[in-house]
Write a structure and sequence with these properties.
Length: 295
């Protein structure tokens, strides 16, 4: 029927920058009959209702996915296995499960084994984002003209892939299909390494003597400020990317300086605390740049 939405019922598990931008596209183009948003914190859930991007909110995974035709997992990657285990028994037969994780093989390994055989998993990664987080930061145009990479498994249902593809085309994205392992290598160079460099440069600057640090912020327009924007990206999300795309990232890391070597050691040892601490520190530098009116 022409005026039926693409999906009658959609559940977002996690509805921050990416999830809320997808929900806004669904609202704009009437692609979802009913949207349920699932998040841990009451402020996230309240924001979704206030913004009008969800009809229903919950902190309960089972309640969120019940009767959903499409389930979008849009949380930090480290949560995916727990979420897959929690939703598996409550999924509607024939439901489509998709995700937006920035790493694909680890996400597939975390989610796919737990899903029942009567649902369809279509892993996806929109190559679009900003350094902001949370449902307020989303906007419907985020994906316009940007790539979305799908990494379906060999046995993934073609109709399910087509429905997910239709959503991304409506969002304005250009679509590409790749094997998950290949995706992870490409993204290690185009996205993960540049972010690692930015985190390293801003972290090194933060270690400088106080007077020099002030000058770095003062004169940041000469290049530093662009690294500070990248290095202000979400600490938890990027901790998870490096922990989950370890091999490909290490491959492209060889030539960098002492601080990069230190980061490399942290990733190899799986020291998420060290990474998160550094990433959280660099986020604060962005604030200094804005305060110095260099942004
Ligand atoms: P975000 O803005 O920080 O949003 C994360 C959302 O997940 C929030 O709604 C958060 O709400 C919720 N959440 C966190 N842990 C949860 C849990 N255990 N259970 C349920 N909800 C949980 O993050 P984002 O930027 O949208 O990123 C989400 C995913 O998109 C990540 O996997 C990332 O790799 C991928 N991605 C990000 C970008 C980007 O540039 N940002 C680009 C492409 C892909 P509560 O804290 O209230 O739970």
């Amino acid at each position: 029927v022409a005026d039926q939405p693409l999906f009658a019922r959609v559940a977002f598990i996690g509805i921050g920058l990416i999830g809320s931008s997808m929900a806004r596209v669904m609202r704009r183009d009437h692609l979802a009959g009913h949207i349920v948003a699932c998040a841990r914190r009451p402020e996230t859930r309240e924001a979704c209702l206030k913004l009008g991007i969800a009809d229903q909110v919950t902190a309960d995974y089972a309640e969120a996915v019940r009767d959903a035709d499409l389930v979008v997992i849009a949380t930090p990657i480290s949560t995916n296995e727990t979420i897959a285990k929690a939703i598996a028994a409550h999924l509607k037969p024939g439901a489509i499960i998709t995700d937006v994780g920035s790493v694909k093989q680890a996400v597939i390994d975390a989610i796919a084994p737990h899903l029942p055989s009567n649902v369809h998993f279509v892993p996806a990664h929109p190559l679009a984002g900003t350094e902001h987080s949370g449902p307020e930061s989303g906007f419907a145009e985020l994906f316009q003209g940007r790539w979305c990479i799908l990494t379906p498994l060999p046995n993934t249902d073609a109709t399910a892939i087509e429905k997910v593809s239709t959503f991304w085309r409506k969002a304005g994205s250009k679509l590409q299909t790749m094997q998950a392992g290949h995706h992870d290598k490409v993204l290690a160079i185009t996205s993960h390494l540049p972010h690692l460099i930015a985190y390293t440069i801003v972290g090194t600057a933060d270690d400088l003597a106080e007077d020099l640090k002030q000058e770095v912020i003062q004169y940041s327009a000469s290049g530093f400020r662009d690294f500070t924007r990248i290095a202000a990206s979400d600490p938890v999300m990027w901790r998870d990317i490096f922990l989950n795309n370890r091999e490909a990232t290490l491959d492209v890391l060889q030539r960098f300086t002492e601080d990069l070597t230190a980061l490399q050691r942290a990733i190899r040892r799986g020291d998420g605390d060290a990474l998160e601490k550094l990433f959280a520190r660099t986020r604060a530098i962005r604030r200094s740049v804005i305060d110095a009116k260099q942004a």
